[in-house]
TrEMBL record:
PANTHER family: PTHR33525, RIBONUCLEASE Y
Highest rank taxon of the organism: Bacteria
Protein name: HDOD domain-containing protein
Classification lineage: Bacteria, Pseudomonadati, Pseudomonadota, Betaproteobacteria, Burkholderiales
Residues covered by the HDOD domain: 21-208
Length: 271
């Protein structure tokens, strides 16, 4: 099967809703569903977090960042961390664990490097989006963090399939962008039950232009993509240009806060 046939095959599968995830991703999805249950008691949430060591470590780390109120003192256990950040913020960490699992079993060295870079980019965009939401656009910071984490989920999915189709992602950014954003990303996000407002903002990234006075989730993601030090290895959907809508002091504040959050989300090493 040549490259174009492979693109067509994967696209046709996605269009039919035939999206299959690695076993590790399905396990995290079950965790997400349990935490999303309104009847999930805090003790059960803590047990579920403890069942995933990576999630437990990141929950404590995130709870100790300035963005989540570290001024109240450092926490050193999962119970205190969950109580501090709350279920909505915990959802973002579960999403982070989920997208990283897409690259968990990649055997090809080049693909694995792409997955590592894509995670670094996603973590930086998520952290910057949260900071921008808090200080500039005033959208919900938890939603902005979540949107940043999952904004390249279609890319992670295609990387997880690329082992099946050697050469699929080599030097073909135009086909990649069309496939990833027009078909695969939409179906993957539906399968993962991404909220409609987040799906809409991610879907508009390719041709999006931020407002002169940024105030939407799309504005937030566009600016976060622009400010992220590490770009996507698969080609950025859109990178805003022009003067930034805030001063240098605000920019430095955003970067400092985002750096701490991105570190708490986890470095580039795949789990």
């Amino acid at each position: 099967m040549n490259k174009l046939e492979a693109f067509g095959y994967i696209t046709a599968q996605a269009a039919r809703g035939e999206i299959s995830f690695p076993t590790s991703v399905n396990a995290v999805l079950r965790l997400q569903m349990a935490l999303d249950d309104p009847d999930c008691h805090v003790d059960e949430a803590i047990r579920l977090v403890l069942s995933e060591p990576q999630l437990a470590a990141r929950t404590v780390a995130l709870a100790n960042t300035a963005a989540f109120g570290s001024a109240g003192g450092q926490v050193s256990n999962v119970r205190a961390a969950v109580l501090r950040i709350g279920y909505r913020r915990l959802r973002g960490l579960v999403a982070a664990l989920m997208v990283r699992q897409f690259g968990h079993r990649l055997g090809d060295r080049v693909l694995r490097a792409k997955a590592e870079q894509l995670w670094t980019h996603s973590a930086q965009v998520a952290a910057l989006a949260q900071a921008l939401a808090r200080h500039v656009t005033r959208v919900d910071p938890d939603t902005a963090l979540f949107a940043g984490i999952v904004h390249e989920v279609g890319g992670f999915y295609l990387l997880s399939r690329a082992d099946e189709f050697p050469g699929l992602l080599e030097d073909d950014p135009e086909n990649w962008g069309a496939l990833c954003e027009d078909v695969v990303s939409v179906e993957v996000m539906r399968k993962l039950a991404i909220p409609p407002d987040v799906m809409e903002a991610i879907g508009a990234l390719r041709d999006g232009v931020p407002n002169a006075e940024p105030h939407t989730l799309l504005d937030t993601l566009l600016l976060a993509n622009r400010l992220a030090p590490v770009g996507s290895p698969l080609g950025d959907a859109s990178v805003a240009s022009g003067a930034l809508p805030f001063d240098e002091a605000t920019l430095q504040r955003l970067r400092a806060e985002a750096e701490e959050t991105a570190h708490a989300l986890g470095d580039a090493a795949l789990v």
